[in-house]
Amino acid sequence: MAPIDLFFDDDIRSIPSVDSPQMEESIDVNELLNDPMHTALKFNGTITSTIRELLKCPVCLNAMYSPIYQCSNGHTVCSSCKPRIHDRCPTCRHELGNIRCLALEKLAASLIVPCKYQGFGCKGIYLYHNRIKHESQCPHRPYNCPYAGSECTVLGDIPSLVAHLKDDHKVDVHNGCTFHHRYAKSNPQEVENATWMLTLFSCFGQYFCLHFEAFQLGTAPVYIAFLQFMGDDNEAKNYSYSLEVCGDGKKMIWEGVPKSIRDNHRKVRDSLDGLIIQRKMALRFSGGDQKELKLRVTGRIWKEH
Ligand SMILES: [Zn+2]
Ligand SMILES: [Zn+2]
Ligand SMILES: [Zn+2]
Ligand SMILES: [Zn+2]
């Protein structure tokens, strides 16, 4: 346990003075760098891997937060794993009891750590216990791939997701803020749930993706078309879009605000936030013998002032 002695160095002990209960959750990095405690921060950086190991729960491997429990031999475990291991220490199998590891809890409380999305451009550093809250809302946190047709687990910032959609999902990118799109399907009566190829639109220096899906709304088979904004919700609100489907002398129009791709496509679909066309109606729009789905969707994206 030699490295832990480092933590009782005077430099490090000065950290808790930054850590007052009134403090806002984010610490300005520049402020810290201009501070005499800069050295403490740097020093802190060199031992974080040891501390990180100490604060890692041996069962779930996640970072531990108060309360942290320990067995009579001093092995630690997190509070969410404790009830799941039937009161046996996961390391030595001794009885666990209810002994808190206050030293480790205090150590954790004194830490200031960078946001885990540092690599994505976040410069924030946070008190250990505040980091999770920040990370759940960090504007730099990566987005999930918005492609709906597969269980894709790719994460990334917008430029890397655009490249991924083009390269790996073979998605087409259209430039401009108006579009005409055709969706076709033979034997649509047999299709209960289906997703069509996503289309990307590039306009106003942003990317939007157009989803088209067949699903069951209650007992009724329907189609839905909707647009998602590749960025955060607060920016998505600056845009509006319309979708229009027509045929056989009829027309349906939808106007809305694109949802951020932070929302899963299924969530947007289930909130019915898009142009919904009943299958019967869609086949009427398709014309002909109504045996085939042939929908022409036209759309427009504009910026709100
Ligand atoms: Zn755990
Ligand atoms: Zn133990
Ligand atoms: Zn962050
Ligand atoms: Zn993907």
TrEMBL record:
Pathway: Protein modification; protein ubiquitination. GO terms for molecular function: ubiquitin protein ligase activity; zinc ion binding. Residues 57-93 form the RING-type domain. It is an enzyme of class 2 (transferase). It comes from the Eukaryota. It is found in: Cytoplasmic vesicle, Autophagosome; Endosome, Multivesicular body. PROSITE patterns: ZF_RING_2, ZF_SIAH. It catalyses: S-ubiquitinyl-[E2 ubiquitin-conjugating enzyme]-L-cysteine + [acceptor protein]-L-lysine = [E2 ubiquitin-conjugating enzyme]-L-cysteine + N(6)-ubiquitinyl-[acceptor protein]-L-lysine. Its EC number is 2.3.2.27. Residues 110-170 form the SIAH-type domain. One of its GO terms (biological process) is protein ubiquitination. The keyword Zinc applies. Keywords: Endosome, Metal-binding, Transferase, Ubl conjugation pathway, Zinc, Zinc-finger. One of its GO terms (cellular component) is autophagosome. E3 ubiquitin-protein ligase that mediates ubiquitination and subsequent proteasomal degradation of target proteins. E3 ubiquitin ligases accept ubiquitin from an E2 ubiquitin-conjugating enzyme in the form of a thioester and then directly transfers the ubiquitin to targeted substrates. It probably triggers the ubiquitin-mediated degradation of different substrates. Mediates the proteasomal-dependent degradation of ATG6, a component of the autophagosome complex. Requires TRAF1A/MUSE14 and TRAF1B/MUSE13 to target ATG6 for ubiquitination and subsequent regulation of autophagosome assembly. Belongs to the SINA (Seven in absentia) family. PANTHER family: E3 UBIQUITIN PROTEIN LIGASE SIAH, E3 UBIQUITIN-PROTEIN LIGASE DIS1. This is RING-type E3 ubiquitin transferase. It comes from Crotalaria pallida (Smooth rattlebox).
